[in-house]
Amino acid sequence: MDLGNAKFLLENLIGRMEQEGDAKRWKLEGSISALEMDALQTILTELSVEHVVPPSSVPPEVTPEIIPGPVEVEVLKQAPNQSEEKIPTEETDDESANQAITLNTRSLDFNEPQNPDITLCLDFGTAMSKAAASRGFEDEFLELKLGEQAKQDGIAYPVVSSIFISDSGTVHFGQDSIKQSMIANIAETLRFDSLKQEITLGNTDSSLDNQLVEDKFNPTELKITKGCLITIYLAYLTDLACSALEDQHHVSRYVKRRYALPVFEENHSRWVKQQLQLLLSRAQILADTFHGEWHAGIKLSEISDAYQQLLKLDKLPDYLIGDSVLEPIAAASSRIQRDEGAARELVMIVDVGAGTTDFALFLVNQDADKEVFKAFLIPDTVKGVRQAGDAIDNSLRIAILENSHIDNKSSHYDLINSNLQRYIRGYKETLFESGTLHYTLADDSEGTIDLKAFLNRAQVKKFESLLESTFEKIMKSVDSSYLDFFQHHSIKVVLTGGGATLPMIQGLGDGQVKFNDYSFNRQMATLVPDWVIDNYEYFEEEYPQLAVALGGACSELPEQGPSYAKFHGVAGKTDQWKVDQF
After folding, report:
1. I want to staple 395 with a disulfide (CB 3.0 to 4.6 A). Which of 112, 284, 293, 459 is the partner?
2. DSSP conformation class of 503
3. How far is CA 266 from CA 144, 262, 270, 383, in A?
4. How many CB atoms lie within 10 A of CB 407?
């Protein structure tokens, strides 16, 4: 903690003290916080007063055993694994002899995936990441408790998409990164909460290996790239998923996997696929190398060392990485193809994550009695909005600051704002669950936010209008042959993702959508389909968050019709697309 913030916290601590009757003594009601204790220790250090650390908390210095690497590495002018340009790193002539980390390259012993009847899907999310797996063509879903594997409190399946680098250079992952960041320097080092947004909103002009992590996320002198940081998180996710397969289902770690993607425009999508296929291939080697070490945290120097070795490999386990699947299509796969009853209808999938809201419109024909489950994606109806749960987080952060009359000119704004960012997701959950949020800021000021008033804020209304206009825009893009045929039917709206229960998202499943001479009623589908309740009740509580991963793990995905297809009835053709294939 820097001296300025320590002084500020100490002043607040003194301000809470009360003078006793004899004017020579002071008392303090209650306990002091970890931050205030940190401030006291900082002041003591500044005054050159040594503060004693219990011996048990000081790890002994250990000279790492030097083990020769399991593979012979030849440095090429440009390995297939590398970008055309890399940020240079310092190396010594004896670097290979002094490496403390030995890569585990067991995945390179194979040339094809093991257990070919298993399909794994990784859903790398902005706030939470998930994984799911199925066995065989009947899609028997395997329970993968990543949250339990990661030793998270109260979260069984998803894991927190977060990394925190401490002042001492230890990298913490998932829920532990949140805990560690709460007791760390609150003003200078931020938790890296939105790793995925470096891909969804990032600079596509260069590789992630050419982009340095900002100092506000990395308080150490060791510079690392975003490619390194995202890969180590993907390694964490990969190891949890693979370990769950091994421990819970006795399946190999080296199975074929898909990965879920938000909706992007074509050029951005091409760049994202290229980056993720490379990083996920690298992630398997780091997952094996650091297996079992995540919960205690890993030294940034060890991660950097391993990553530099990784960049020099001329071979990666890319045989493991299958095709990408768009998130709304994966969500449809878990919902539409397995839904109950018999119907022929238009179904709008709305998948709401933390960073993106993705839409897709499907023509569905299903009859459970006849075991018919077909969903065709209507051409040109997959749309993405670069706003979702994080937009609500940001609106709430601004609302709290305004409510407390704090702006960027206020004293200690950086301290208060950075601390607020760490708590904002939890504050949002409290606000939407209870209807009222009582908050306390880093300067001990307090305030209250009412849900009804918050939902009427201009920023929130703007987000709500953006969602509605996107829904309408998609419907306007549909060929009139579909609209004429289904104009007397309701549009079923299926909401998935972690933000599916937000009020402005729920509103998409109600009311009407009107445009030109058309008017369609919207009918919201149940949040959890019957097949989950009947066969996989343990998925029920967290199904909205798991929908994309479950759908991406299906052996078959919804079929996609050709561009500009017209609908001529279930016995006709839509250009080259035969609808009677239902």
Report:
1. 459
2. H
3. 32, 12, 6, 12
4. 10
Residue whose pair of structure tokens reads 């299903």 in the numeric block:
366
- C-alpha span between 528 and 531 (Å, rounded): 9
- The amino acid occupying position 282 is R
On whether the CB atoms of residues 284 and 320 are closer than 8 A, the answer is: yes
What is the per-residue burial (b if ≥16 Cβ within 10 Å, else e) of 273-282?
Answer: eebbbbbbbb
pLDDT score, position 423: 81
Cα four-point dihedral sign 316, 321, 327, 331: negative
Asked if 90 and 316 touch (Cβ cutoff 8 Å), the reply is no
Residue whose structure tokens are 């090429």: 76
Nearest to 424 by CA among 451, 449, 379, 394: 394
Instruction: Write phi, then psi, for 511 (nearest 5 degrees).
Output: 75, -155
Domain 328-387+463-581 in CATH: superfamily?
A: ATPase, nucleotide binding domain (3.30.420.40)
Residues 436-463, mean pLDDT to the nearest whole number: 89
Residues 6+ away with beta carbon under 8 Å from 552: 121, 123, 132, 258, 259, 260, 325, 330, 333
- Decide: 197 and 126 in contact? Cβ < 8 Å: yes
What is residue 305's predicted lDDT score, i.e. its pLDDT? 95
Q: How many CB atoms lie within 10 A of CB 496?
A: 29
Contacts of 333 (CB under 8 A, 6+ apart): 325, 375, 550, 551, 552, 554, 557, 558
Say if CB 565 and CB 379 are below 8 A apart.
yes
Whether residue 92 is predicted with pLDDT greater than 50 in this model: the reply is no
Domain spanning 389-458: which CATH class is it, in words? alpha beta
Is the pLDDT at 295 greater than 80? The verdict is yes
Least confident of 154-168, 344-358, 367-381: 367-381
**pLDDT at residue 497, rounded to an integer:** 82
Report which of residues 417 and 21 the model is more confident about.
417
CATH topology of domain 117-316: Nucleotidyltransferase; domain 5 (3.30.420)
* Mean residue pLDDT across the chain: 79
Residue 84 scores a pLDDT above 80: no
The answer to whether the beta carbons of residues 367 and 354 sit under 8 Å apart is no
How many angstroms separate the CA atoms of 476 and 484, rounded? Answer: 12
Of the listed ranges 8-22, 99-113, 118-132, 350-364, the least confidently predicted one is 8-22
Residue in the structure block whose two tokens are 């395997």: 142
CATH 3.90.640 residue spans of the chain: 389-458
CB 561 within 8 A of CB 335: no
The model's confidence at residue 409, banded by pLDDT at 50, 70 and 90, is: confident
Written as six digits, the tokens of 94 are 């004896």
Task: Give the whole-angstrom CA distance, residue 214 versus residue 5.
Answer: 21
Tell me the one-letter amino acid at 57.
Answer: S
Which residues of the chain form CATH 3.30.420.40? 328-387+463-581
Q: What residues contact residue 150 under an 8 Å CB cut-off, 6+ apart? A: 159, 173, 174, 175, 236, 240, 294, 295
> How much is the pLDDT for 318?
95
Among the listed residues 415, 395, 391, 412, the one whose alpha carbon sits nearest the alpha carbon of residue 403: 395
Q: How far apart are CA 412 and CA 12, in angstroms?
A: 12
